[in-house]
Structure formats: C-alpha cells, structure tokens
Amino acid sequence: MKYIFEVRIKEGHTAEEYADVWVRASELIQQASGARGTELHRKIGDPNTLIAIASWSSKAERDAMEVGHNPKIDEIIRSAAPFVEVHPLGEFEDPEWVVHPPGTPGGNNIGF
C-alpha cells in the first residue's frame, strides 16, 4: 500500500530543508516491519510543493509503526512543522490496473 501526502514549503524556506528532515525520519521509519521505501517528488513548475510517497507491505504494518514507533521520529517531524504544511492525501492499495509500454517487463499487460 502507499501512504501519500503533499508538503508545501513556507516562504523563506526551501524544499532541501524539508528533504533533510524527511530523509532523517524516513531512515528510522524504514526500519519498521513492512516498510518498503519512500519517495519525495518536487512538483514541476512549483519548487515549493512536494509529494511524498511511503510504500508499505500492508496497512496493518504501517498502522503498527504509527502506534509503536520511535519517539525520535516525532521529534524529527516536529522540527519541520514551522516551515511546512503537510496535507495527507490518503492511503492507497497497490495498483489493480497496470499498463506497461511494449518492450518493457510486463509490456502490454494489464493487471485486473
């Protein structure tokens, strides 16, 4: 599953400042059972808007991390609060429908 959220950087700050915080928190979060990686994307044409995607084996494992995670994670995330606005977009299942370009692994296959 994917947990996706949008991050808006406040004036006077940079995406790089947030990325530093995000990497430090992600390194700890990725030690949890079921963690499958995180990605941070910058919006084209708007360098102060980011989208973050955290991948998990299951919602239950992500929820378990939230309940019993390292307090250091909260401390790191709180350090970014003064210069960002975070808007959760939601939790999403892994894709049910996938179309790959011809000639790539799974090319022309649509999963249902």
From TrEMBL:
Query: Organism source for this protein?
Result: Microbulbifer donghaiensis
The protein here is known as: Antibiotic biosynthesis monooxygenase
Domain ABM, chain residue ranges per copy: 4-61
Give the matching InterPro entries: ABM_dom, Dimeric_a/b-barrel
Q: Domain of life, per the record? A: Bacteria
Q: Which GO terms describe its molecular function?
A: monooxygenase activity
User: Which UniProt keywords are given for this protein, alphabetically ordered?
Assistant: Monooxygenase, Oxidoreductase
- Pfam annotation, one family: ABM
